[in-house]
Amino acid sequence: MQTDTIDILFGQSNTCRSFLTLELALCTAAGVEFFGISVGQGAVVWVAGEGRGGLARRIEVRCLHQDVNVVDLPCYITATAVPMINQLAFAKLCGRICSTMNDVAAPIVLVIIDTMAPILMQAMRTLHRMPWHSSAP
Questions:
Q1: In 3D, which of 81, 110, 105 has the Cα closest to residue 93?
Q2: Cα Dmax for the chain
Q3: pLDDT tens-digit readout, 79-91
Q4: Using an 8 Å Cβ cutoff, are 74 and 106 in contact?
Q5: For residues 4 and 1, what is the distance between their CA atoms, to the nearest angstrom?
Q6: Distance CA 92, CA 2 (A)
Q7: pLDDT tens figures, 105-134
Q8: Cβ–Cβ under 8 Å, residues 27 and 19
Q9: 3-state secondary structure of 129
Q10: Omega prior to 15 cis, within 30 of 0
Q11: Which helix (H) or strand (E) holds 114?
């Protein structure tokens, strides 16, 4: 991953996408190597689309394994899913991220949006409710 880019990690279910993403997030927040690759240390924002319930526990277990104090990690998780196709909700999310940037000592270097499925499902429902007009004669 390059700095100042948008990257997408995609694949079929049960292919360790969330595991890899969580590992990258924690390595970045802790400033430790990601599978032998040096990463820049900084704060991480995790926008949880689904599966938030188990995320905190997975972070705790990972921190125990790495001998890192979870309280010291600059890693921030949204409390609720964000409907990204809703402009107001997206603007509020951006505002929260910006205010977090002002409140933390470490710069935010990674924002993770996990998972796209709820966002895409909402987009599909929205599209199905829209009136479609044909311009054909």
A1: 81
A2: 69
A3: 777 777 778 888 8
A4: yes
A5: 9
A6: 26
A7: 788 889 888 766 666 666 666 666 655 544
A8: no
A9: helix
A10: no
A11: strand 108-114
